[in-house]
Specification:
single chain; about 110 residues; alpha+beta; 3-stranded antiparallel beta sheet; globular; binds iron/sulfur cluster
């Protein structure tokens, strides 16, 4: 059986929707970016509608604010949130197999 391997196509980073931050992740990212915590949360996060988490904001096209395109991909890759690391096994979006380059390799 083939093993899933991310091809860094960026589709999951371009998918519009919350990138929820768990406890401690906001601090970790702010520290990685060498930003003061309050500055980071006010500039790069919003509170989710259910008020459970902070989420990274997205750009006008719906992509994640930290998606910087090819070939770099994620600007905070070393400290990306668990939600990002969990894709596609713990969460995914409709028809993700048709969009994710790594999934296409499994076909
Ligand atoms: S959509 Fe799939 S291959 Fe593309 S970056 Fe996300 S996990 Fe990797
Ligand atoms: S934090 Fe990085 S891996 Fe997560 S959605 Fe944004 S660009 Fe993609």
């Amino acid at each position: 059986m083939k093993e899933f391997k991310c091809k860094r196509c960026g589709t999951c980073c371009k998918w519009s929707g919350y990138v929820r931050l768990l406890d401690g992740e906001s601090e970790k990212i702010a520290s990685f970016l060498e930003l003061e915590q309050h500055f980071f949360t006010s500039k790069y996060t919003i509170v989710t509608a259910d008020r459970r988490n902070l989420s990274l904001i997205e750009k006008e096209d719906g992509s994640c604010i930290f998606f910087i395109g090819d070939p770099a991909g994620c600007a905070i890759n070393q400290v990306k949130p668990k939600q990002c690391r969990d894709f596609p096994y713990r969460w995914n979006f409709e028809n993700w197999q048709e969009e994710c380059e790594g999934a296409k390799d499994l076909l």
